[in-house]
């Protein structure tokens, strides 16, 4: 499986996020800002950064490619292992719409 460069950029990006999950530069700092310790603000900013980066990761399509999912003609996700195969469950579904006989 070949990965594109833009997908490989996410590996060090998330490695840095994991490394800075613990506020190493603030070890032993007792400073308080707006009534909360500085390390709490570190985590708030870190979680915001994680949210933004994960959103960009998903929107870039790297999530689907990494999970082996491709988009179908309607833009919805399709399992990459079933691309080109016929969906036999719809013909075998029960009268109540389930997938069990």
Tell me the Rg in angstroms.
22 Å
Number of DSSP E strands: 4
Overall mean pLDDT:
76
Which of globular, elongated, flat, extended, rod-shaped describes the shape? elongated
**Helix proportion:** 40-55%
Description:
- This protein has 101 residues and is mainly alpha-helical.
- It has a domain at 5-69.
- The protein is built from five helices and four strands, in the order ααββααββα.
- The strands form two sheets. It has a two-stranded antiparallel ribbon. A two-stranded antiparallel sheet has the order 3-4.
- A hairpin with a 5-residue loop joins β3 (69-71) and β4 (77-79).
- The longest helix is centred in the middle third of the chain and has 22 residues, at 38-59.
- The radius of gyration is 22 Å and the shape is elongated.
- The two termini are 38 Å apart.
- The relative contact order is 0.09.
Features:
about 100 residues; mainly alpha; two-stranded antiparallel sheet; about 45% helix
Chain-wise SSE layout:
Elements: H1 5-8, H2 10-19, E1 32-33, E2 36-37, H3 38-59, H4 62-67, E3 69-71, E4 77-79, H5 89-92
Antiparallel strand pairs: 1-2, 3-4
């Amino acid at each position: 499986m070949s990965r594109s460069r833009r997908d490989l950029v996410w590996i060090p990006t998330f490695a840095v996020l994991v490394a800075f999950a613990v506020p190493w530069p603030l070890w032993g700092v007792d400073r308080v800002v707006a009534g909360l310790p500085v390390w709490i603000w570190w985590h708030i900013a870190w979680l915001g950064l994680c949210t933004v980066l994960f959103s960009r990761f998903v929107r870039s399509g790297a999530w689907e490619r990494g999970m082996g999912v491709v988009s179908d003609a309607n833009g919805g996700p399709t399992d990459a292992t079933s691309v080109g195969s016929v969906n036999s469950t719809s013909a075998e579904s029960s009268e109540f719409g389930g997938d069990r006989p």
